[in-house]
């Protein structure tokens, strides 16, 4: 089977990838709300630890394209 | 409490009409509700009419003729169990003529009954014996020589009870219990007259029949014909203590019937408001794990997980736990440790664990296994209604006209509630089932769903929004309710959103795979069929849009005005016994007890004052974040009480990697569970039989757990947490869980009125219980939503990122079955394995054919996360393209397959959707073999060195 190696990968995302994934996922699910960026920011502030938020800020700086527009906008609203 | 049987009034209470009648019984004038039987009337006024076929858990039947009475002005001798009281009636229950007649009836019964009373297991606990005494039978004129039914073979196939036909008096109480109370219809009376006998359907034995071993028939049987094996073995009980089942969120209460220090049986308590005298096989019979030889009774420690365990004293284990946690915090910082509370432990224990973490660890790194089941319920219902809990009590279902069951399989997961629901359905309520699988409710004896919507896993939000589309565009919503109770602007925003053509049933049919007509019909029925009640389970929450689905459900209920009275509402069916309580008690990293955010200064000040420390205003880590932080090297120590995250959490590889990266994992549990394979300290836990406390069930009902025996491990779990806390420098001085509850009440507004003396007096209380609601709150949001105005939230369907494709063409969804519980740590250690010795993979015949698979074949189940093997069960219960398995057995390791995808709002894992491939296999996978080896090595306990 050609895809054997991928099948057997344990598929553990790195923490950085997961934080970005989570932020984008929150933003995507709140996208239909009137104030999606405000709500995304509030959600992250309410449920993430300070260390996670700080790490996301770093990641956003390192990989500017990784975050969706709503997530990026939300992040700008969050003062860590 | 000493032993006395619960009073049996012979027939159930009359259905309330508000009218009463006055009559005279044996010279005494009594006034009772219309519809009451003479038998019940006599019993309620202190009398007792002999009876055999009547019992107050079911409707009267009138077959034994032992309960005859005389009624002035009426001919003959009516049966008191089937004759209702009437105005002015004059009844005599004890006359010479009646005595003669009753003796005659009794004689007939006894002449065909073995008279081995002295050696019979039910001696002293037999109604036939009692009634023979009551009617004064001293002699049997017919002799015992004629044809009898004695000597027939016993059916001992059920692991928990025996059926001895020779002792059967064919009163048919068992048959009626199975029908009316349980709703399974497993028993029939075969044959006629003298030859008639009770039989599980189709003449099978009990184990092979439809019987689900709920025990209702055993409880109903007036003789030793159906009897618990434990009564035969241990003897009849001599005392009883009322306590609460520690398995599921129904929260059945039981009389733990003891003989000396030995538990003889658990008998469902008639006064239990959650179960009303019924039970399922787990709570009724599967308590043997409490004494199982696998239980660990001594604390153990080890320096590394590759070493065998070393048994140590409690003092050493506790001191070592405290010093390890303090060492780690010294080296890696205050936030480098955390803990996990258990939905199986009591409220008091859970409260103490989160207190230990917030007060003692100095951070908010506390989470609970509710993370992996109902965290979206808390989030979704608090957003929309303002409380993180269901809206109704269980009794409410008896007022429902349309019952919508979404992603729940109550007959397996919440069996006692399912029996109530089925009763209501037999009375004529309509049923809609939204579930990828054809669950038992869809079609079972005398119950059939009006609509089954077998949607593709992962499309709940699209489906519920399409129902909303129908309700809004066809103007079936309740405008008066919405205007009064909800924010009208938010409603119109939502209504505009759901009305868009892309959200119609027709537009989403290709996604969900469900015919648009069927969706329209179901939506119309829910909106217009009278009281509409929604019940949902993990098939709603365990998705990447779990929270959105809960909000979509709440939207539907608000739009149709189905909130705030009996018979309606939004009802999460909670998995574990105390998952509601664990959430209430502040087990989540962002909130204190009563769902108050840690950043709220006033709440923090309250706790700071009570606990004498300053508290962290930052939310802590959730379980998956703890595991990430561990692999990153910033999280090093974990205290896990009563949970097995390695087996129950998704993506086992991820959990294992996280645990392996920690320096100190402390597991407090009954058994060396899978998580303990990665632990450095093991603190033996106690069972629910060994401690005092409270559990809170899915109806927000707080009920007492009472100690019936001393803890085999030496301490109740709350005491162990207190020892750890004090070793870490705190100053806790609880002598009894009642004091912990007092502290909870003082710090939590919704619990302000909850104290043990109130619970003793009331039996149970449903929170909120406080000055505003001194007797608790069976139905929520009656005059208004807790948050003020009900909030409609736009729920956009976002497909999961877990996609099928050529390599993983099938969707795996997971669930549970009746006889096992969660990861099965308890039930696998009982005779319940008779029903489910292994996890099987359900696969549709066409998918099986394509792969050349037959029923019972070993198959490899493979996802992007990993693979495992198990045996196939070929069945049409699952749709083509969908496969299904349970996760009760560690050998299967179903969570090796599940992925890290989770609910966007709460990180509740997406257990219900995993893209997989299935293929023939010839045995366990490498992972399973390696894992089994590692587990064996990890569970070694070093032999004790001889003491000098
Ligand atoms: S144990 Fe329950 S399901 Fe089985 S026959 Fe008795 S009443 Fe019916
Ligand atoms: S088994 Fe028991 S309950 Fe059933 S008919 Fe016989 S005596 Fe009655
Ligand atoms: S497992 Fe659930 S339904 Fe069964 S007895 Fe216990 S609480 Fe009741
Ligand atoms: S108890 Fe009334 S007829 Fe049997």
Automatic annotation (TrEMBL), chain A:
It holds the Pfam family FdsD. It comes from the Bacteria. InterPro entries: Formate_DH_dsu (IPR021074). This is Formate dehydrogenase subunit delta.
TrEMBL record, chain B:
In the C-terminal section; belongs to the prokaryotic molybdopterin-containing oxidoreductase family. It comes from Sphingobium cyanobacteriorum. This is Formate dehydrogenase subunit alpha. NCBIfam families: Fdh-alpha (TIGR01591). Residues 97-136 form the 4Fe-4S His(Cys)3-ligated-type domain. The keyword Metal-binding applies. InterPro entries: 2Fe-2S_ferredoxin-like_sf, 2Fe-2S_ferredoxin-type, 4Fe4S_Fe-S-bd, 4Fe4S_Fe_S_CS, Asp_de-COase-like_dom_sf, Formate_Dh-H_N, Formate_DH_asu, MoPterin_dinucl-bd_dom. Keywords: 2Fe-2S, 4Fe-4S, Iron, Iron-sulfur, Metal-binding, Oxidoreductase, Repeat. Its EC number is 1.17.1.9. PANTHER family: FORMATE DEHYDROGENASE H (PTHR43105:SF14), RESPIRATORY NITRATE REDUCTASE (PTHR43105). It comes from the Bacteria. Residues 238-294 form the 4Fe-4S Mo/W bis-MGD-type domain. Residues 159-190, 202-231 form the 4Fe-4S ferredoxin-type domain. PROSITE patterns: 2FE2S_FER_2, 4FE4S_FER_1, 4FE4S_FER_2, 4FE4S_HC3, 4FE4S_MOW_BIS_MGD. CDD domains: fer2, MopB_CT_Fdh-Nap-like, MopB_Formate-Dh-H. One of its GO terms (molecular function) is formate dehydrogenase (NAD+) activity. Residues 19-97 form the 2Fe-2S ferredoxin-type domain. Pfam families: Fer2_4, Fer4_7, Molybdop_Fe4S4, Molybdopterin, Molydop_binding, NADH-G_4Fe-4S_3. Signal peptide: none annotated. Gene3D superfamilies: 2.40.40.20, 3.10.20.740, 3.30.70.20, 3.40.50.740, ADC-like domains (2.20.25.90), Dimethylsulfoxide Reductase, domain 2 (3.40.228.10).
């Amino acid at each position: 089977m050609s895809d054997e190696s991928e099948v057997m990968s344990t598929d553990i995302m790195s923490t950085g990838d997961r934080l970005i994934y989570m932020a984008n996922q929150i933003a995507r699910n709140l996208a239909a709300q009137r104030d999606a960026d405000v709500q995304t920011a509030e959600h992250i502030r309410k449920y993430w630890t300070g260390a996670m938020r700080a790490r996301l800020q770093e990641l956003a700086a390192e990989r500017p394209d990784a975050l969706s527009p709503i997530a990026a906008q939300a992040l700008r609203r969050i003062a860590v | 409490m000493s032993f006395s049987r619960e009073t049996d009034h012979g027939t159930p209470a009359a259905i309330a009409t508000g009218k009463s009648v006055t009559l005279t019984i044996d010279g005494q004038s009594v006034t009772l509700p219309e519809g009451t039987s003479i038998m019940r009337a006599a019993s309620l006024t202190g009398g007792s009419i002999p009876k055999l076929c009547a019992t107050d858990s079911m409707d009267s039947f009138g077959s034994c003729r032992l309960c005859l009475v005389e009624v002035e002005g009426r001919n003959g001798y009516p049966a008191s169990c089937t004759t209702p009281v009437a105005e002015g009636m004059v009844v005599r229950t004890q006359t010479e003529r009646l005595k003669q007649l009753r003796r005659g009836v009794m004689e007939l019964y006894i002449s065909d009954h073995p008279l081995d009373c002295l050696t019979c297991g039910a001696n002293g606990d037999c109604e036939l014996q009692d009634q023979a005494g009551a009617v004064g039978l001293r002699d049997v004129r017919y002799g015992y020589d004629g044809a009898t039914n004695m000597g027939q073979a016993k059916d001992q196939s059920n692991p928990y009870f025996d059926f001895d036909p020779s002792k059967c008096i064919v009163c048919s109480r068992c048959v009626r219990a199975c029908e009316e109370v349980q709703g399974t219809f497993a028993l029939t009376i075969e044959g006629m007259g003298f030859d008639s006998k009770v039989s599980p359907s189709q003449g099978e034995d009990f184990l092979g029949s439809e019987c689900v071993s709920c025990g209702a028939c055993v409880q109903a049987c007036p003789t030793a014909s159906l009897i618990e094996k434990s009564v035969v073995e241990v003897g009849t009980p001599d005392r009883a203590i009322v306590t609460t089942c520690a398995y599921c969120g129904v929260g059945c209460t039981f009389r733990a019937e003891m003989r000396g220090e030995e538990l003889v049986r658990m008998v469902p308590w008639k006064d239990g408001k959650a179960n009303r005298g019924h039970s399922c096989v787990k709570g009724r019979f599967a308590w043997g794990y409490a004494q199982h030889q696998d239980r660990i009774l001594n604390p153990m420690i080890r320096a590394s997980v590759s070493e065998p365990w070393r048994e140590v004293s409690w003092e050493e284990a506790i001191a070592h736990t405290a010093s390890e946690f303090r060492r780690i915090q010294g080296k890696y910082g205050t936030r480098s440790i955390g803990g996990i509370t258990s939905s199986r432990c009591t409220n008091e224990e859970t409260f103490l664990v989160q207190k230990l973490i917030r007060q003692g660890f100095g951070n908010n790194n506390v989470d609970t296994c509710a993370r992996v089941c109902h965290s979206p319920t808390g989030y979704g219902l608090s957003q929309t209604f303002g409380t993180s809990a269901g809206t109704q009590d269980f009794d409410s279902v008896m007022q429902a006209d349309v019952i919508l069951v979404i992603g729940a399989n109550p007959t397996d997961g919440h069996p006692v509630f399912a029996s109530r629901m089925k009763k209501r359905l037999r009375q004529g309520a309509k049923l809609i089932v939204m579930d990828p699988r054809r669950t038992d409710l869809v079609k079972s004896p005398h119950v059939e769903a009006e609509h089954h919507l077998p949607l593709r896993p992962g499309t709940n939000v699209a489906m519920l929004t399409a129902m909303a589309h129908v309700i809004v565009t066809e103007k079936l919503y309740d405008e008066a309710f919405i205007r009064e109770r909800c924010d009208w602007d938010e409603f119109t925003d939502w209504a505009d959103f759901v009305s868009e053509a892309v959200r119609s049933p027709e537009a989403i049919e290709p996604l969900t795979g469900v015919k648009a007509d069927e969706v329209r019909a179901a939506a119309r029925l829910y909106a217009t069929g009278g009281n509409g009640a929604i019940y949902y389970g993990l098939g709603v929450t365990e998705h990447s849009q779990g929270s959105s689905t809960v909000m979509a459900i709440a939207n539907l209920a608000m739009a149709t005005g189905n909130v705030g009275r009996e018979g309606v509402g939004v009802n999460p069916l909670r998995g574990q016994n105390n998952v509601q309580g664990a959430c209430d008690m502040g087990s989540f990293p962002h909130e204190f007890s009563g769902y108050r955010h840690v950043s709220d200064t006033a709440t923090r000040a309250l706790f700071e004052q009570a606990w004498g420390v300053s508290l962290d205003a930052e939310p802590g880590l959730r379980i998956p974040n703890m595991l990430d932080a561990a692999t990153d090297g910033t999280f090093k120590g974990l205290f896990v009480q009563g949970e097995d995250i390695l087996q129950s959490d998704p993506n086992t590889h991820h959990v294992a990697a996280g645990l392996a990266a920690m320096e100190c994992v402390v597991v407090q549990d009954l058994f060396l569970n899978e998580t303990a394979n990665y632990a450095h300290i093991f603190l033996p836990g106690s069972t629910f039989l060994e401690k005092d406390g409270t559990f809170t069930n899915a109806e927000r009902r707080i009920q007492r757990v009472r100690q019936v025996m001393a803890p085999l491990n030496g301490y109740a779990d709350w005491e162990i947490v207190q020892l750890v806390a004090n070793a870490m420098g705190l100053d806790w001085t609880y002598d009894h869980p009642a004091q912990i509850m007092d502290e909870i009440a003082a710090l939590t507004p919704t619990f302000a009125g909850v104290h043990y003396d109130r619970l003793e007096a009331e039996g149970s209380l449903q929170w909120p219980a406080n000055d505003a609601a001194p007797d608790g709150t069976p139905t929520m949001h009656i005059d208004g939503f807790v948050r003020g105005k009900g909030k409609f939230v736009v729920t956009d369907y976002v497909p999961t990122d877990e996609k099928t494709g050529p390599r993983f063409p099938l969707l795996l969804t997971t669930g549970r079955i009746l006889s096992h519980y969660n990861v099965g740590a308890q039930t696998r250690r009982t005779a319940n394995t008779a029903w489910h010795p292994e996890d099987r993979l359900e696969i549709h015949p066409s998918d099986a054919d394509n792969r050349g698979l037959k029923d019972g074949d070993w198959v490899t189940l493979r996802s992007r996360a990993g693979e495992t093997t198990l045996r196939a069960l070929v069945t049409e219960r699952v749709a083509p393209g969908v496969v299904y398995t349970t996760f009760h057995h560690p050998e299967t390791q179903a969570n090796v397959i599940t992925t890290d995808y989770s609910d966007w709002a709460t990180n509740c894992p997406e257990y219900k959707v995993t893209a997989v491939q299935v293929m023939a296999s010839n045995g366990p996978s490498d992972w399973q073999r390696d894992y089994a080896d590692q587990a064996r090595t990890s569970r070694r306990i070093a032999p004790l060195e001889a003491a000098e």
